[in-house]
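REQUEST ID: PR-0412
SUBMITTED BY: lab tech R.K.
PRIORITY: routine
TASK: structure prediction, single protein chain
INPUT:
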Amino acid sequence: MSVSVSPTPYSTSVESFIGNTPLLPISHSGSRSVKIAAKLEWQQLGGSVKARAAYRIIRDAMNRGELGNGRRLLDATSGNTGIAYASILSRLGLPLTLFVPENASEERKTLFKALGAEVRYTSKYESTEGSQEAARDLADAHPEHYFYADQYSNPSNWKAHYESTADEIWKQTNGQITHFVAGLGTTGTFTGTGRRLKELNPDIQLVALQPDGALHGLEGWKHLESAGAPAIYDYRLADQFLNVRTEDAYQTIRQAAQDEGVMLSPSSAANLFGARQVAAENRDGFVVTVFPDDASKYGTVIKDLF
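STATUS: complete
OUTPUT:
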């Protein structure tokens, strides 16, 4: 993804650490005839898949003249997008304000502070929806001071994956991918990657994962029936939906550590669980998923599992 506006000499160094993540073959796929592989999305600036969307949102806003010249980027986040924003904007020398649910992990709160973001906490009972409302109110009250990125509605979110993630997967699998499996949060990864993969091969099956209920432990994921779908989500894309229990994701964290040699976050483990379910349902194929981040930001959860 090229940048047409270069506000500082650091722009090139930022871009070079976004995308082009490796594809990890899964050795224990649960099927002898179906391959599984996962994109190691934590190997980007900011340590998560959100680097792609955050970079594209920032780049596009700067190209439109909506960010910089005294205007702060403002958004609501449960964690990873905020960390990605902060990592990128700190290198560009631009300010950031985040609205975050107060029950965000201590690891995330420490990272926000270390990276120089201004953080305003909202009620844990209102989840990210409460943070979105608070961010929107502040942006409406002071439009001259803030660019409200609104990751859940911003088309730059899904376009980042349409223009990078999908083509990387296509090349890394030599066009052999048969299924793409991903959880739904902001839905940018699923929507953008899925839309482009369908253009490359309409026969690729897109499998959307979500928690099995409104109350769950898969941070960043949405149960669409209770939380509602983000504006960027395209209901026409998914060929199949699968629900994932938090307990199954946590068990997969243990298994992946022992079998694959990787320490996964709950959402990455949930994606792996879903990919294995798809593999078990098919006689052959090449299933690809994403590992949005690793276990480094989930100290309490990981400690309780081992």
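NOTES: The two ends are 40 Å apart (CA to CA).
REVIEWED BY: pending
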